[in-house]
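Re: [ENG-882] Designed sequences occasionally contain unexpected residues at chain ends

Forwarding the minimal case from QA. Structure tokens:
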């Protein structure tokens, strides 16, 4: 989708990044619950997956920058 320089592809990438961040958060919660129930340490795993979720969310936010919006045209700009 990065190679297809249309506005809709940029929006699709943003939506996918936000959905990915939500999935990482969900996996983090599931990991913490599972590890707590078994009495195993969970903090490092939660920190790593939380950082991955934040990175994925930041990627989606960066896709909304002015530079990228200028590069990805709308269909009417063709």
């Amino acid at each position: 989708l990065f190679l297809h320089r249309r506005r809709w592809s940029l929006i699709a990438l943003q939506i996918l990044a936000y959905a990915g961040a939500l999935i990482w958060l969900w996996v983090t919660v599931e990991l913490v619950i599972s590890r707590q129930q078994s009495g195993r340490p969970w903090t490092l795993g939660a920190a790593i997956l939380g950082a991955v979720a934040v990175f994925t969310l930041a990627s989606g936010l960066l896709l909304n920058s002015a530079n990228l919006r200028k590069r990805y045209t709308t269909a009417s700009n063709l």
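QA comment: On inspection the terminal residues look reasonable. Residues 7-38 form the longest helix (32 residues). Proposing we downgrade this to a documentation issue.
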